[in-house]
Specification:
Helix content: 25-40%
Radius of gyration: 17 Å
Distance between the termini: 46 Å
Order of helices and strands: EEEHEEEHEEEEHHH
Low-confidence stretches: none
Largest sheet: 5 strands, antiparallel
Structural class: alpha+beta
Mean pLDDT: 91
Strand content: 25-35%
Strand order of the largest sheet: 1-2-3-5-4
Number of helices: 5
């Protein structure tokens, strides 16, 4: 499976995301601590569970194909088809006022639907060819059965504004973003 793959992301512990020859991806997960909930519920399973739940909710996301346990390298992995489109961070012209308002509405809908996404940033929000907003890298997410509390909403915004580039994109159309979120 790995033969001919392109490494998309890696760290000091090894490869994390591989683009396979057929255009699908293999995302590798490792347990970072000896005592961790990831030993009971691996992040690869969370990734699949969250992707399926988002799809059921009508939110565009990646499509899981297969889960793997790779004992030889102490990893789990998920093979998935990508969500087609461009991340908001990579849009050639940035985020215009119209898209900023849509982004505000999208995040408000996520919050109202109980989606708490710790990896919420513009590199994980995709504008699809159908002109819809969707999510990628969905392992670090909880989907509650009810609307998020104000505290969780604020924590989610802290994640969104963690990177200068994202903060600057949103700040350039903050009025429209806020208008979309408050609608």
């Amino acid at each position: 499976m790995r033969d001919g793959a392109t490494v998309i992301e890696k760290d000091t512990h090894g490869d994390k995301v591989l683009l396979l020859k057929d255009g699908t991806y293999l995302k590798l997960f490792r347990v970072k601590r000896l005592i961790s909930s990831a030993r009971l519920l691996p992040y690869s399973k969370r990734f699949v569970k969250n992707a399926r739940k988002l799809s059921q909710m009508g939110i565009p996301t990646v499509t899981p194909i297969e889960l793997y346990k790779i004992p030889s390298i102490q990893r789990t992995a998920v093979h998935y088809a990508p969500l087609q489109g461009t991340t908001l961070r990579k849009l050639p012209n940035g985020i215009d006022k119209f898209l900023a308002e849509r982004l505000g509405k999208f995040i408000r809908a996520l919050h109202d639907d109980g989606v708490y996404f710790r990896s919420l940033h513009l590199g994980n929000i995709v504008l699809t060819p159908e002109n819809r907003l969707g999510l990628i890298d969905v392992s670090d997410m909880r989907i509650y059965g009810k609307s998020l509390t104000e505290d969780l909403r604020l924590r989610n915004f802290e994640h969104l504004f963690r990177y200068d580039i994202d903060r600057n994109y949103v700040h350039s159309s903050l009025r429209e973003f806020t208008h979309g979120y408050e609608k």
